[in-house]
Specification:
The protein has 98 residues and is an all-alpha fold. The protein has three helices and no strands. It is rod-shaped and about 85 Å long. The relative contact order is 0.08.
Length: 98
């Protein structure tokens, strides 16, 4: 057998070089990873390939950054000057004719 981690050949039960067990089923790469995979239980996530987990982490970090930017935008909008009541009433009066 060939070790799937280090590539050492001529092994039977475990690799003498890296110590990996050769009887364990190794995870395969998925075709794609979606953000919805985050909600899977730990047992299913533990069976994913390391690359798939890294891609999933990247997706989660992007979503977190979007949420944080939206939070900052809302916070800035709350501090912006308020619209005059006269302007607001005028714009409401103009929409009545449409």
């Amino acid at each position: 057998m060939i070790c799937s981690y280090c590539g050492t050949e001529g092994l039977e039960k475990s690799c003498f070089f890296c110590g990996a067990s050769l009887n364990i089923k190794r995870p395969k790469l998925k075709e794609f990873v979606a953000l919805e995979d985050v909600e899977k239980p730990f047992n299913e996530l533990a069976c994913l390939h390391m690359y798939d987990l890294l891609v999933l982490l990247l997706l989660v970090r992007k979503e977190r950054a979007k949420a944080y930017d939206l939070k900052l935008t809302l916070k800035k909008a709350a501090k912006s000057p308020q619209i005059d009541e006269v302007i607001l009433n005028y714009s409401e009066d103009q929409t009545d004719f449409i």
